[in-house]
Amino acid sequence: MEKQYQFMRETIVTANACKKPDAKTFETVLLPKVQASAETLSRFKEANRKERDWFTHLTVLAEAAPVVGWIANNVSSLLPM
User: Fold this and answer.
1) Where are the domains of the chain?
2) 74 contacts: CB under 8 Å, gap ≥ 6
3) pLDDT tens digits, residue range 7-31?
4) Distance between CA 36 and CA 51 in Å, rounded?
5) What does residue 31 show for φ and ψ, rounded to 5 degrees?
6) What 8-state DSSP symbol labels residue 21?
7) How many alpha carbons lie under 13 Å from residue 33 in its C-beta half-sphere?
């Protein structure tokens, strides 16, 4: 999860310094990393299924991981100017 947020931070900092790419380019760069991160968390959760004390926490993290993909959406049209 920490790697996802670090990647998201790096992406936002880089995006701030660059011209906005088209949606297809942005998805090509971003989505594979978000998906790989979500899959890693899911595998970690399944590998530690026997950890009864931590399994609920691991489930929350694994299910929340794809939410990081929100930055791929063009939400500027939803924000007030």
Assistant:
1) 2-11+26-70
2) 23
3) 778 877 887 787 777 777 777 877 7
4) 23
5) -60, -40
6) P
7) 18
